[in-house]
Amino acid sequence: MVTQHPVVAEGLTRRFDDLVAVDHIDLEIQSGEIFGFLGPNGAGKSTTVRMLTTLLRPTEGRAAVAGYDVVSQSGAVRASIGVALQDAAIDPIMTGTELVMLQAVLHGIPRSVAAARGAELLERVGLTAAADRRVGTYSGGMRRRLDLALSLVHEPTVLFLDEPTTGLDPTSRSALWEEVRRLNTEFGTTVLLTTQYLEEADQLAHRIAIIDDAKIVREGEPAELKNAVGDPTLRIDVKREDLARTSEIVSVFGDERPAREGRVAVGLRGGASRMAEVVRSLDDAGINIVHMELDAPSLDDVFAEATGRRLEGAVEG
């Protein structure tokens, strides 16, 4: 496969016996972009990353990373990429500096170069003060930032981040986001980021692909995908006994959208200008509104339109 793009996949498929984990997906990631791979747990995100990083052999299809075939030129692929996996094992006995130096040795980087680069990377991810501490004393956020530094030691062409902020507190998550942005803007690093967080994909990615049940169901720029949803989403909370009647009444104002239990949601045609009509219609029917909100289209709405359900763990409104 000859390509000028950092990451290309055609019909990429992976089966585990009768289970299809990734089903004939196509990807084309441009140089210097952050590409978000968004989907729920078990959708196929990590399996795709493992194929693209040569850790798992595709059952069908082809893929090239940094211009090299992931099967026939796997060694060249590994030399060209940085990988930070969500389940990466980091030796808790070693210090941050020792791990960076070890990573440099594994990549054949001279010790004199490695020392300076390691110090620079640890500073970049905010770990200079903890560089000589054992990693076992690091917090979860510090470990993720160290893992990011380790993945950058050999100055990779493409960086793969597999759910890098899962389990992190909001402050640590924001700090890692800033570092990913800086890597991309200052150094032009191409990044493939897998995530189950809507906000993360919206904040970081230039383009995203939404994967569900092993297949890509939507792809494009976040703003473009949200605009395609069209009407804003009206969400109404009512008493359980009023749900069916509420759904019937508001159906004339827009198409039904997936909503959590105890809530009715529609794409409100005409937007905010029609909210008063909705309130009057429900009031005339004797239905008491517990809560009502109108939200501009979100990536969760994009996911819901594509799959018929909300992304697990997504916060509405």
Key descriptive features of the protein:
317 residues; six-stranded mixed sheet
According to DSSP, the number of beta strands is: 13
Mean pLDDT: 90
Provide the low-confidence segments as ranges: none
* General form: elongated
First-last Cα distance: 44 Å
The radius of gyration computed from the alpha-carbon positions, rounded to a whole number of angstroms, is: 23 Å
Helical percentage: 25-40%
Order of helices and strands: EEEHEEHEHHHEHEHEEHEHEHEH
Strand content: 15-25%
Please, how many helices?
A: 11
The largest beta-sheet arranges its strands as: 6-7-8-3-9-10
Explain this structure.
By secondary structure, the chain is an alpha/beta fold. It has eleven helices and 13 strands. Helix 6 (170-187) links the parallel strand 7 and strand 8 (190-195). The protein is elongated, with a radius of gyration of 23 Å. The two termini are 44 Å apart.
Question: In summary, what is this structure?
Answer:
This protein has 317 residues and is an alpha/beta fold. The protein has helices at 45-52, 74-80, 96-106, 111-124, 140-151, 170-187, 198-204, 222-229, 243-250, 275-284, 299-307; strands spanning 7-16, 19-29, 34-38, 60-65, 68-69, 81-84, 158-162, 190-195, 207-212, 215-220, 233-238, 263-267, 289-295.
Topology:
Blueprint: E1 7-16, E2 19-29, E3 34-38, H1 45-52, E4 60-65, E5 68-69, H2 74-80, E6 81-84, H3 96-106, H4 111-124, H5 140-151, E7 158-162, H6 170-187, E8 190-195, H7 198-204, E9 207-212, E10 215-220, H8 222-229, E11 233-238, H9 243-250, E12 263-267, H10 275-284, E13 289-295, H11 299-307
Parallel strand pairs: 3-8, 3-9, 6-7, 7-8
Antiparallel strand pairs: 1-2, 1-4, 4-5, 9-10, 11-12, 11-13
Helix pairs in contact: 3-4, 8-11
